[in-house]
Sequence to fold (154 residues):
Amino acid sequence: MSEEKRDETTKSTLSYEADEMEKIRLKKMKEIISRASGARMVQDYPDVPIKVSDEDFNEFIHQYPIVVVDCWAAWCGPCLMVAPIIDGLAKDYAGRVVFGKLNVDENPRTAIRFGIMSIPTLLIMEHGTEVDRIVGAAPRQHIESRLQRYLRRA
Fold:
């Protein structure tokens, strides 16, 4: 191969590598900007309910724009009826809503703070503030219709 041809091939290879490096750099910059602006990517949203406690409750409700906390207890029959609904909603709304589970027997401070008098109680939180609650075993359609109010605003 002539030296001229070799130089041309080398330049072409270096140009391709520089283009690829620039693409990677731009992708990383977008990720950094997205994180810095507080925006969340869909893969950051869990698709299963997250167990929350008195200790991490505040951090959890402020971590995502819309959060639903299922306040429940192991001995509560209606709570056990709602559990599979919450599991299904967590999967179906992943990327838009995050679901948490708070056992009120194990976490009385948070239950008292929010005046949980009956369970199950679903707390709907928007940017860390309670905007709605559903008390009692509600069907999936009812929970979804209440959620839609806040998803339209988000």
